[in-house]
Amino acid sequence: MTTTTRITPQRASGRLPVALIGAGLVAVSLIALAVALVAAGGAYEAPPPGISDSGPLVVWGTAILRVLTDLAAIATIGWLLCAAFLDPAGRGGVVSRIGRVDLKRAAIAAFVWAGLAWLQMLFTLADVLGVRLLQALDPSVFTTYVNEIPITRALLAMTVLAAVVCVASVATSTTGASAAWVLIAVVAASLPALAGHGAGQGDHALALTAGVAHVASATIWIGGLFALAVHAARRDLPLQHAAERFSSIALVAFVLLAVSGLANGYTRLETPDQVFTTGYGQLLLVKATLLVGLGALAWVMRTRVISTLGRASRAAVFARIAAIELTVMVVSVALGVALAMTAPPRVDIQFDSLGESLLGFAYPPPPTASGLAFGFHLDPLFLIGSLVAASLYCIGYARLRARGDKWPIGRLISWLLGIGVVIWCTNAGISSYAQVSVGLHMLQHMTITMLAPILLVLGAPATLALRALRPSHGNDRGPREWLTWLLHSWITRILTNPVYVFVVYVLGLYGLYLTPAFGWLMGSHVGHIIMQMHFIISGYLFYWVLIGIDPRPKPLAYWGRMLLLLLALAVHGIFAVILMMGSAPLAVEWYGIVRPPWVTDPLQDSLYGGQVAWGLSEIPTLMVMIVIAIQWSKSDDREATRLDRKADRDGDSELVAYNERLAKLAERDSSG
Hints:
By secondary structure, the chain is mostly helical.
């Protein structure tokens, strides 16, 4: 005889303590903020006479609103995370009753988040302009400057995205949509990090990447723990399963938080001794100490508490430890805000020219084969992302081999070669040269958008993942179920539509290079990353449709694949001819400023880019044509084998029926 333990919601007894805990966490964070700002020298100080002053209300109000905005974002992400991944799911990916409640909580938190982000934007505008709050609210001042200052522009975008998440959470009824809103919310929370201290440092690529990673990992970890703590206090959720799932998410977030924190410290401190000799460094040290303590608490929770949550009495233990963790976490959030509002000790690097200042590094020497191939220019996002992708593939390969399953070694080699090409394009010498020369940029572009995706697609990563991942039980979606859902979703149907991939991959060249979009994207590190991501993703989708081994909703017939490839080659050739016949340099608003001495003729440099686009398109096209021909031939062989086996089973009934039909026709003709 089996018994089922039913968790009865305790709403009446749970509301007041949860509300008091929330208010206490906010109070602790504000106290920690005040102490940190005073200690680090970021508190308000009256400027010398004659210098405009926004006043203590604006300075302190900006800091307080930033903390409150961060906490609202954390709560929103936490509730969405529960609805998408941690709460029990209904059939067909529909959220359960508990998930529906969490989505409503997320909507309320997002509404508060949007309002606080709007207020923070107003206070920040006044602080940056050095004017009183009422002056910043003047329509002429607001409309003139709010979209010109990076941080206020980021806060404006955050406000809009938070409002979208608020409305969408009310209308959402599936875990798939909830997962999408988690992603949007994390992006919105990370936007201010793109306008922080890192933009002015020589290592701004590392600083911006680390800043975004730090915010994203912190909001997911703190938000998920907050939502689980509330559920533990109210006892309205099967806690053990949810906590086990969140434990894996928290582990990844902790590692990412630690690594990105180290990178942030490196980019903002001039020398190691500044950790102890400056207020900024001391705050970093305190924050690092708190992170170590959080890691210890999380380890206790993971090893000693989560496995015992099947007993209802242990939920209170989980809630108490989670409350301690959350207290330390909100103090860390306050310290992070204080650090963001305090000038770091590292002095901005002074370069010899405006172009080098915009680049963030000195002009590279005249290009050589060894410099292009073996030079190094760090792009941490693509380097770390590529290494993670390679590691996950190798883990899946090893898991299949360990249980005796086979996986073609050629696919493993193809995937690793594709990863190697991506790393070379984004971190080798070509990466720095591509930012100052149109011709060398086109060399990078053609390689990363044509060669790398072909190799990656032939690696069949989705098929490997489907075979290596273990299925989940019940209605809940694990990694394998999420991947299956994605491969068969309407999103993938659109992304693998031949018309869509042709427009994005081929015609997108015209929209990028023959409009001001090229120079605008090159003008910022974020824009440069977006452009490179577009190259990789659009190329992957195109070659997935043409030669992909992974499953997709509607595979294209082989004759259609060959036709699409030839059409793309023709349109790409026309694009290259347009570049070679150009009478003006490309993206002069960027490449005309970041122009090293060895680029003596910008127009000739652009024409060289057209020649590269023409020449490098033929080799990948030939590779793909050969692969399609081989796949087509094998498909015909498999179809012939299938028909032979069917004929052996049924005595070739189709041929017999066909001959009988011919005989009847002949008999009818003769009788007529």
